[in-house]
């Protein structure tokens, strides 16, 4: 038997595999957080588009409905609820005569079962 043999012993290989597996196990929670973050981002993109569509709908109207005006839509894409409120200075004296405020509230239950909502608001000129 030669004393000058090069290579790895079985024990060295096992220790290396244990260290590698501990490192890989440490990445597990980061993968879960990444998936949760992607789900939240997906919801926020959909919610932003739902609000943008409603705001653009009112911006493109030739004549706004009588104010104060409320509209409610439920189960959009099976998950989202959209509430729209349009009011002028008859409801809010801080608004000038030629402006009205449009608020769009989107509410939904996320994949973890938590109820979430976000509000978008803009001002429209009465035409």
Question: Topology, pairings included?
Answer:
Elements: H1 10-59, E1 69-76, E2 80-87, E3 99-109, E4 115-125
Antiparallel strand pairs: 1-2, 2-3, 3-4
Provide a descriptive summary of the structure in words.
The chain is of the alpha+beta class and about 130 residues long. It has one domain (about 10-125). Helices cover about 40% and strands about 30% of the residues. It contains 1 helix and 4 strands, in the order αββββ. A 4-stranded antiparallel beta sheet has the order 1-2-3-4, covered by helices on one side. A hairpin with a 5-residue loop joins strand 3 (about 100-110) and strand 4. The radius of gyration is 28 Å and the shape is rod-shaped. The protein starts with 9 loop residues before the first helix and ends with a strand. The model has no long low-confidence stretch (mean pLDDT about 90).
């Amino acid at each position: 038997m030669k004393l000058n043999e090069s290579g790895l012993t079985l024990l060295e290989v096992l220790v290396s595999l244990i260290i590698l597996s501990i490192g890989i196990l440490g990445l597990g929670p980061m993968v879960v957080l990444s998936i949760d973050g992607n789900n939240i981002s997906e919801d926020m993109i959909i919610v932003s588009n739902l609000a943008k569509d409603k705001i653009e709908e009112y911006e493109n109207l030739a004549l706004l409905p009588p104010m104060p005006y409320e509209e409610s839509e439920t189960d959009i894409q099976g998950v989202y609820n959209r509430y729209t409120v349009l009011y002028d200075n008859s409801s809010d004296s801080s608004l000038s005569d030629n402006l009205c405020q449009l608020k769009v509230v989107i509410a939904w239950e996320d994949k973890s079962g938590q109820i979430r909502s976000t509000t978008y608001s803009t001002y429209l000129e009465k035409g």
